[in-house]
Amino acid sequence: MFKGMVGSWTVVGIVLLAVCLVLGAFFGEVLGGNALALMGAGLAVVLSGIGSIVGVGVAGEKAAGITAEEPENFGRVLPLQALPGTQGIYGFLVAFLALIKMNAFGGVLTLTLEQGWQVFFACLPAGLSGLMSALYQAKVSLAGMDIAAQKPDESGKGMILSAMVETYAVLGLLTSILLIMFAVNI
Amino acid sequence: MRDYLWASPVGRIRTIEKGLLTRSDLAKVLDAGNLEGALMALRDSFYGPYVSKLEHADMFEVALEEAVKAVHDKVMRLAPEPLIIAAYRARYDFHNLKVLLKAEMLQVPAEEGGFSRLGNLTPEELMEALKPVRQGQAPVAPLELEPDSIGESAYKVTCELAAVYARVLAQAEIGQLSSFEVDGLIDKSYYTWAASVYRKSGYDALEEIIRSEIDIINLKMAVRANLLGISSSDFGGILIPGGNVDAARLAEGYIRGYRGVADVYKHARLEHLANRGVSQAQKGQPLTGWERECDNAMVKLVRQARKISLGPEPVFGYMFGREVEVRNLRIILSGKQSLIPEHEISERLRESYA
Amino acid sequence: MKIRANATRQELTRLKARIRMAQRGHRLLKDKRDQLMREFLSIVHESRKLRQEIEERLTAAYRSFSLARAVLSPSVLEEALMVPGGAGEISVSYRHIMNVVVPEMEIQRRDDGELQDRDGDEDKGMLPSYGLASTSSDLDEAIAKFQGILPLLVRLSHIERTIHLLADEIEKTRRRVNALEHVLIPELEQAVKDVEMRLEEIERANISRLMKIKEIVRAH
After folding, report:
1. Å from B201 to nearest chain A CA?
2. Chain B: residue nearest C133 by CA?
3. Which residues contact B49 (CB under 8 A, 6 or more apart)?
4. pTM of the entire structure?
5. For chain C, which domains are there?
6. ipTM
7. Is the residue at B171 inside a domain?
């Protein structure tokens, strides 16, 4: 179950999340609300970033393999490689919004412990769904590249299939935005 | 399992495997009037460079062997975990080991024609590597062993060969082994080792492929052994453990003859195949067609694994596909050479991987 | 060649005896020749049948073999057939046909090899000399076919040898018969005739001499 590209990086992401949770749970008093909120924003970027890095990386390798044999296929595999990259951007967007909400650009941060946790959890949907969807989207993209390599005229279908996974990354992003905008009480 | 390493090789294989001969390509070769014509039909394919080098059409085996060797070398270079490929290729090394051992049994120099050049080691390298084994030492390790290098995988194969060699030598001293037993022992060692390599690699599809191959080989052997009247104790000695169907159960079933063999495969994936084989043998019909079905079952299984888009399976599949293809070409070409009628050739052709 | 004989009565009876002897020998040799011919023809017939059978079976066996060769790679085939399938022994005995010594050969299968009898119920059944995992049933078939032919080939070889020996013997007998019929007997008969003629002449000379003597006696 936890082996191969998807399995091992999922484990890495979950371990990271667990470490942050434990840190917050046991050392929350010491760290304070500000640190918790920043940790949440950071996780959103890092988790979805891991997914995108691995996804784009592996997909890029395969795209390079295909291009090495048939350079004219480059245009067909490039969008497939790019698709798992969106999650990283979503993570960044969420972190940015959270920072605005915290008034991080406006000077001094004064968040209570409760507010800190609120931001932390508001950021999680984008981070986690970004991680998982990027990894699985990469898999679909890899399979889509098979289509592009074998039946170049049908490569658009691979792209559509891969884009389906995007839906859930977008849902995670929306949820996080909504939570930060309306649910977090600052 | 580090499937992410295989992204680039899979990408390349996807394009390369479009060059596999399709059914209609094979049909073109089959339709040729004679051997020369059949070779001409291969001119524009992957086999073109090898075929056009031939001085004489009758030497087509040379071209086929060279083509397979080129495929092996290419796949080995592509593979980030070469042991996966080396473990498959090792069947030719184990074949060479058989030749060596038999030559030693007969106390004659090993004949060049018996050796296969497709292994990880050339026959000369193999002989060199086995020299220290006779003195009870391990084969000499290369100076530098980078992990996941071709040299490392070749060394692992060498160690395994040396272990098998030592084991056979030890047994041969106790009682004289017959050539049947030597072949059986080596085949058994190879498949058990390959299965363990694939199990450790963590690629389920590959493990399933080798397990099924063991099952199919065991089934084929059971039917043929029954036909040849081989005793159950001799048969138990050549059965290969490690398949999905327990070898011990098959050995028990074998005592009860054909029905017993078929019963063992009941509810297994090969049930249909086992029943067909047994009924063919009972009716006294030739097993040729059935053996083809067995091979086709393997091709279908590997073709399944090919759908995996990340991992060694497509690369493995490509190599396997080329080997099947070469087998088909050999059937066609040597059929043309010995003037076997076309329909008899085509009823022996295996399903192609493409 | 002419037989020289003294023109005496004794010689004549001797010659006549020789003629009778030659005629009897001639008759006997002729019988022998005919008998040999009969044997020869039946063996030739048998050999022709055997040859035909062997040819058919060999064609089938080669066919099976080339099919096996098509499926297996040459190195696998070579390896599978490296070790001989077992040892066979050929025992030779002799038989007399009309005083001709002809060999009879038989092949015996020795020890555990392929050649062992299938229905021999020893616990160690017959084993092929190659592994089953890497070979195909086409090879089993081809080898079984070749094995079936081997005893026939041995039989054919002794039959052919018999045919050679018989042919030699027939040729020799035929020459003898011819020699007796066309040379010895006519010559002997010629010699008898000569002797008889000379004896008659001597007789006539005797009579005329006697008559001359009588005339001389009467004149006195």
Report:
1. 11
2. B217
3. none
4. 0.85
5. 9-219 (1.10.287.3240)
6. 0.85
7. yes
